[in-house]
Amino acid sequence: MFTNVLSRNNVAIRGDGERTLVLAHGFGCDQNMWQRLMPHLDGFRLVLFDYTGSGGSDLSAFDLDRHSRLEGFAEDLGEICEALDLRGATLVGHSVSGLIGLISAVASPARFADIVMVCPSPCFLNLPGYAGGFERSDLEELISLMDRNYIGWAQHLAPLVSGQPADSELSEELRRSFCSTDPLTARTFAEATFLSDHRDLLSRAAHPVLLVQSERDSLAATSVGRYMHDALPNSQYEVIDADGHCLHMTHPTQVATLIREFTGV
C-alpha cells in the first residue's frame, strides 16, 4: 500500500537533513513549482509530491467524490506522511495547500511540528463580515470558463496568479502548468479551492503557523493574512514587498530565510 501511495503521488525525496520539509504545491501546479526555492533549503530533507490529478501523479487514482473537497487532498497528504512514517515535519504549503496541510495536521498532529503557509486563504469568497476577495458569481464564471475555453482560462489566470505581465517567464510557466493539467481534475480542484470556506478550521490549529503574505496579491490580500493571523492560536505573520501569489518562485531567498528563522535550522 505504501509503495502504491508513493507512486500514486509521484513522491520524491531530496537532501538528508535531520529536519524534514514537506513541500505541498498549490492549485494548477505540481512539485516543479518548488525548483526556485529548493536551492536555498540545503540542510533540510525535502519531501516533494504531486496531488492526485496533478503533475506526474497517477490520474487513474483521481476520485471525483474524494477530490471534490479539500479533505480528499488532505487524505492524500496524510497517506504520504504515513507511508514515509513522518514525525515532527514542517509542512510548507502554497496557497490552498496551507489549508490542506492544516486539515491534515488537525487529523494527525504528530506528523507535523509546525506549518508554513505561503500566500494562503481560508476562503476566497466575499461573505457577510468577511472579505475573501471575490464574489461567488465571479468565481463560478471563472470556473465555467474552464469548460468553454480551457486554454483561454489558463491564459487569463496565469498573470493574475503571477502578478506579472502575461508574456513574462513566470506567467508562461504557470500557463504551461495549468494547460498540462487534465481539465476534469483541474476543474474539480478549482471548485474545491475557490468555493470552499475553511475559516472555522483556523481556531483548531494546534501547531505554530508562519504566514508569509505578498504585499500585492490579487488572490489573497494582506487583509486575509491578518484575518488568519488573528484567528490562529499561535501564528507569526510576515509580509514581503512583492507582487503576485507565488512568493516561493519570485522571492525564494526571502521565503527560505523566513522558513529557517521559523524552524530554527
TrEMBL record:
Pfam families: Abhydrolase_1
Signal peptide coordinates: none
Domain AB hydrolase-1 stretches: 20-252
Family, as annotated: Belongs to the AB hydrolase superfamily.
Name under which the protein is recorded: Sigma factor SigB regulation protein RsbQ
The organism of origin for this protein: Devosia equisanguinis
